[in-house]
Amino acid sequence: MIMDFWAFFIAILLLTMTPGLDTALVIRNTTRGGWKDGITCSLGICCGLFVHATMSAVGLSVVLVSSAELFTVVKTIGAIYLIWLGVQSIRSTFSHSQSIDMSSNKSLEAPSLKVSFKEGFLSNILNPKTAVFYLALLPQFINPEYSAFAQSLLMASIHFIIAMIWQGGVALLVEKAKQLMSSTVVKNRIERVTGTVLVMLGVNLLVSK
Predict the structure, then answer these.
(1) 145: DSSP letter
(2) CA 141/CA 79 separation, integer angstroms
(3) 164: helix, coil or strand?
(4) Most buried among 30, 97, 180, 203, using CB within 10 Å?
(5) Confidence band of 69 (pLDDT split at 50, 70, 90)
(6) Which residues contact 116 (CB under 8 A, 6 or more apart)?
(7) What is the pTM of this model?
């Protein structure tokens, strides 16, 4: 049903494997709360794909792109949210005891799975660049003989599966690394790095045109 399926598949695969915001968030949540938190964060990110696919199919993304004011508002909200997540990550590392053993794979401030899901979901739907990407990409593979909405959701589903597998692998690797490096100092350093990356991504989104 999808036109040029393999071209679409390769494009989505490369997009998913390129390090960026999603990878940083998954690493952050896995480091902070464990493998389940990383997977749950990934699930939230991937569920956001269906929002963008729906917006693209019904034309809402066109409105977002054509309205400079609306795009700026969404971009600013998304950027502030990323910066807030990054700052929270960095701040939390200063409250962790340096003497706690990480072998239990749990942080003193491990979030609930609901929080991890919400952070992933909001970071995705508040990123206007994802909406623009879906608007630019999906129509190229829409077969006019079939429903554009159904095809958009199908492509989002394919992206969902690829992203969950990739990000789940990232979360698993981070969890294994945590077990090998059972030092809270190491954990804090990883979380500070990912927090800094989130802040930088938020600032970059804020100043981008």
Answers:
(1) T
(2) 30
(3) helix
(4) 30
(5) confident
(6) 29, 33, 37, 38, 40, 41, 44
(7) 0.76
What tokens does 85 get? 């997540």
Beta bridge partners of 101: 183
- Tell me the CB-side half-sphere exposure of residue 141, using CA atoms within 13 A: 25
What ranges make up the beta strands (E) of the chain? none
Using CA atoms, how far apart are residues 84 and 64, in angstroms rounded to an integer?
24
Rounded Cα–Cα distance for residues 65 and 60 (Å): 9
First to last CA, the chain: 35
- Cα–Cα distance for residue pair 172/145, rounded to 1 Å: 41
pLDDT tens digits, one per residue of 112-124: 889 999 999 999 9
User: Per the structure block, which two tokens stand in for 67?
Assistant: 């309205």
Cα distance between residue 149 and residue 156, in whole Å: 11
* Number of alpha carbons in the 13 Å side-chain half-sphere of residue 170: 27
- Say how many C-beta atoms besides its own lie within 10 A of residue 45's C-beta: 28
